[in-house]
Amino acid sequence: MTDPADTRDTGPRLGSPLWMYFTAVITIGLTALVVAQIRLGLGELTQLAGTALFWILVVLVVLGELRPVMVSSSAIVGGTPTSTLFTFAVLMHHGLSAAVLVQAVAVVVSGLVHRRSWHRIAFNIAQITLACTASAVVFGAFGIHPRPLDTWTPEGADMPSIALAGLAYFTVRGLLVCSAVALHERKSLIRVIKASIGPQALVYGALLGLAPLVVVVMEHSTGLVPLFVAPLAAVYFTATLSMRRDHQAMHDSLTGLPNRKMLILRTEEALVEAREHERVGLFLLDLDRFKEVNDTLGHPVGDLLLQIVAHRLTHSVRPGDVVARLGGDEFAVLLPSIRDGHAAKEVASRLRVALTEPVRLEGMTFDLDASIGIALYPDHAPDFELLLQRSDVAMYMAKEGRTGVEFYVAERDRNSPERLSLLGDLRRAIDRDELDLHYQPKVSLEDGQVEGVEALLRWWHPVRGPISPVEFIPLAEQSYLMRELTQHVIDKALDQAARWWHDGLPVPVSVNVSARDLLDSGLPDQLSAGLARLALPPNAIHLEVTERILMTDQAYSADTIRTLAALGVPLALDDFGTGYSTLVRLQRLQVDEVKIDASFVRKIGESPDDERIVRSIIDLVRSLGLRAVAEGVESAEIAAQLRAMGCDAGQGWWLAEPMPATEAGVWLRARLRLPLHNSELAMDSSA
To answer: Helix 608-623 to helix 636-645 angle, to the nearest 10 degrees?
Structure first.
């Protein structure tokens, strides 16, 4: 039942409060140990070492130190060593010098067996020495000064001195250990004491209360002393069984990490203890491409990989942070105390760096990566359930955007009340035909001829006013409405294209569709039926899809792509340059033109790097026999540079801004020098 999150053997940072505390306690405690031995001298200790009783006590103290009594509630400060019983008995019978010497030997042996760090061994020796010294001072106040060869055996009248000495031992040892835990885990001392005082007091009370009986037996019959092992063993095994049940209920069986139940308890504790201007952070972490490992190499290899991930996570967080496994390849990390969002992101980045180190299993090397979502209390949520939900939203944002780490953003949460309300309004807007299309021309940079127009969706909300597509398009993409919205836009665009084409304006209309739409087998049927119904040629409608589709392997095997190509509907790749495309992937997708993202085009006159990027994209696109179209053409200088680079066409406010259908018709006729239609004449005269 080793806790993988136990970082007590990790050395404190030099100069930190914990380092200074350890240094002070170890220095004082070891000094007290040396002084106790010097004051007594080696003579009496040597004679005591020649007795059978001494070695029986040494063995019992060592065994008690090796196997502490564990109770679940005291896990925050570890178990209670049963060596306390025999050490306190030695203290009463043979004095301080013998007690601290025997206990120091036991701590060293236990530390070596359990491979504890040197600072932890030294601290344990020091804090026990100081606790024994406090008890010796109390006994001294009652005139009790036992020595190795001048022993003391208590009687009934000595109960007050024994009780006070035991209380001093427990108080000093408890305060020293709880202070170390509080500094190590950055928790308040009061909280640590409250979490441990009850169960620790019960166990220590039982052990210290038995010590006088051990002394009486030591005085009268050395051979009977080992019989005290029997009741201690019963207590130990009973506590172990109880601890094991608690551990199984609160921990993941595969990794040994806390499970959801434990995470809830620790989070609620952290929320209660959170101080003013202090935050509590909750991360949700999901491994990328883990399913491929399970499917390819089987679950045993996947389980080993999860254990490695658990180990790396627990050794990358700060002391006091909680790493939990929620199931599958999903982990959570609780930061009970964090300064701000910047500090939380530093921890998250450290976790990702730890995970990216290659793993070698079954003769294969795996490159791990993870997406992490962060939610903070009180910034993003007031309780555990909302923290978990919102860190989950942030995690999916990181996964979808391939950013690695994301904070919760309410505006991007499709489950927030505001977004759910907006989603309902969008549905009603589609049903009531309240959405409109504006059209932005696409112009040849060589001769200024109009090559087409792009349909841009606009929504004027009756209460909120104009709502940007940036707000409602991602919302629709994450819901059931995207398909319906796409169908609505295509129908409106086809109707407008038919009016223009039949009025002598054969201008292709481009419509933006999502990757999900492009993989929808119903899309070609809708286009085919619409073109036939309106007597339009296939090239009257163009489809534009963002570069992200190049990252979807389904796109190259989807029947929809081949059906659209066979239908004759041209396909363009939008926002090119913002993703992670490769030449091979671009070659495999059946597109006719590539639109260069405006973020690069706008800066070609200012940034040599952006100019090189745009030039390279144009050369790449033309080498593949495709057309290059630049978005964001906002000045004559940019247009001239693009023309010199060989770019075929452009879009932007300098060329023409998005216009309602009627204004766009007037603009197109003026550019093409065609007579105005009746409705356009009316508008032109009114203008």
So the answer is: 40
Mind listing the pLDDT tens digit for each residue in 324-370?
A: 988 888 899 998 888 888 888 888 888 888 888 877 776 667 777 78
With residue 559 as reference, give the H or E element that holds it. helix 559-567
Distance CA 130, CA 169 (A): 8
Q: How far apart are CA 410 and CA 511, in angstroms?
A: 29
**Cα separations in angstroms, 674 against 500, 565, 669, 670:** 12, 32, 5, 6
Q: What is the DSSP letter of 225?
A: G
CB atoms within 10 A of CB 285: 27
Q: What is the pLDDT of residues 102-136, one digit of tens each?
A: 999 998 998 888 888 888 889 999 999 999 999 99
- In this structure, are residues 616 and 576 in contact, taking their beta carbons and an 8 Å threshold? no
Mean pLDDT of the chain: 81
Span 483-527, pLDDT tens digits: 888 889 999 999 999 999 998 889 999 998 877 777 677 888 889
Token output for 301: 């290899």
Alpha-carbon distance of 41 to 37, in angstroms, equals 6
| Strands 593-596 vs 627-630: parallel, antiparallel or unpaired | parallel
614: CB partners within 8 A, 6+ apart = 577, 596, 600, 601, 604, 630, 642, 645, 647
CA gap 100, 123 in Å, rounded: 13
Strand partners, 588: none
Report the first-to-last Cα separation within the chain, whole angstroms. Answer: 82
User: How far is Cα 294 from Cα 303, in angstroms, rounded to an integer?
Assistant: 9
Alpha-carbon distance values, 152 to 99, 147, 216, 218, 287 (Å): 13, 8, 10, 11, 64
Please compute the mean of the pLDDT values over residues 185-197 and round it to a whole number. Answer: 76
* Nearest in space to 232 (alpha carbons), one of 56, 64, 93: 64
Pairing of the two strands 435-444 and 330-338? unpaired
Kindly state the tokens that stand for 535. Answer: 């007597």
Q: Residue 480 and residue 39: Cα distance in Å, rounded? A: 83
Sequence-distant (6+) residues with CB within 8 A of 390 are: 373, 375, 380, 381, 408, 413
Strands (E), 536-661: 541-546, 571-576, 593-596, 627-630, 649-650, 659-660
Separation CA 152–CA 156 (nearest Å) = 13
Counting Cβ atoms within 10 Å, is residue 42 exposed (0-12), middle (13-18) or buried (19+)? exposed
* Residue whose entry in the numeric block shows the structure tokens 């180190």: 357
Tokens describing residue 499: 């009016």
Cα–Cα dist 284/390, whole Å: 9
Please report how the helices 229-250 and 260-273 are oriented relative to each other, as an axis angle in degrees rounded to 10. Answer: 90
State residue 538's pLDDT score: 92
Per-residue tokens: 259: 């499970």
Residue 569 makes CB contacts below 8 A (sequence gap 6+) with 524, 527, 538, 539, 541, 542, 543
> Residue type at 235?
V
Closest by Cα among 403, 276, 277, 279 to 343:
279
- Check if the beta carbon of residue 464 is closer than 8 Å to that of residue 418: no
The residues pairing with 366 across neighbouring beta strands, listed in sequence order, are 359
Q: Rounded CA gap, 507 and 594, in Å?
A: 19
CB of 524 closer than 8 Å to CB of 563: yes
Residue 30 is which amino acid? L
Angstrom distance (rounded) from CA 656 to CA 633: 9
Q: What is the CB-side half-sphere exposure of residue 102 using CA atoms within 13 A? A: 34
In contact, 441 and 655? CB cutoff 8 Å: yes
